[in-house]
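User: What would this chain look like folded?
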Amino acid sequence: MKRIMEVGDVFESKENEIIIVGIEPVLDYLNEIKNKVLLHTSDDKQLELEVKSVRISNSPTDKKMLGICLGESIVPKHILLGATVYVLP
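Assistant: Here's the prediction, encoded as structure tokens.
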């Protein structure tokens, strides 16, 4: 599996979709993100989550940020900061 990022923030949009954000992600694998990612939590759980969309932006300190919209497939409290996100093969 290819590591994309660690979760640095989690929030819910106005449309009730969950978005996870990582700072300085591994952008080499962006085109390999299809319709699901694997979230590996710090308590050794692995969750396959549906991807609705992916966005790249710059942080205020000019670092790359990756936002992955997961739709409504999970609630924010189930995603811990520091969880690792991987591309599914």
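The first strand starts at residue 2 and ends at 6. If you want, I can go into more detail on any region.
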